[in-house]
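Worked example

This section walks through a single chain of length 218. The input is the sequence exactly as stored; nothing has been trimmed or padded.
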Amino acid sequence: MKLSFASRNAPPPEPPKPDVILASQSIGRRALLEKLGVRFRSVVARIDEEHITDKNPETMIKKRAAAKAREVVAHPRVYTLPEQREALIVAADSMAIIGAKVYGKPVDREDARTMIKILMGRTHTFVTAVSIVLLGIDGKVKKTWEKSVSTHVTLQKLSPVELDSYIARFDLTRFSASYAINDAPWDLVTKIDGSYTNVIGLPFEVLLPILRQLKIIL
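Given that input, the structure is written out below as tokens.
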């Protein structure tokens, strides 16, 4: 009988990659992860965002993103987090800001109309806060990353007829500030100064280094 022996110098097998959990049902965020070829699962963090406030708009957005991540981490069974396997929780929150006023997702078409009327013909700051948590195989937090990214966005001024058509064609309640540069085929955004993926809702300059560090992507 011929026996074979593994080389003593053979490297140990690499640990499995962390499961990626996106704490969002955002169309834009999901599309960005899909473009990266990342296998992930989406969940909806059960928090009441309206009760998370702050005088500073950017601080409020950061608090909301962090709350989403904490909610998922605190309830592993509710969100069916993997057992005996690392998990990467990715949470984010996005809003447009002009001065001290923030513009999130509109509640209905009339609310969307009001937002677009305020924003069009002006430049606003679009902020996305990202909160990412790495859970170990024991379910405990190994590392946390929290960062916000700002992009200056200018919208063109639509005529009343164009605005009516825009409001009628798309379900704008899905989008922060009532517009989506990646989903609605409309020349509403005339200028972007900063990160494009930030305006979609998940800035790659924050996410990519973490995914590479954990070898989720090359």
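What to look for: The longest helix spans residues 57-74.
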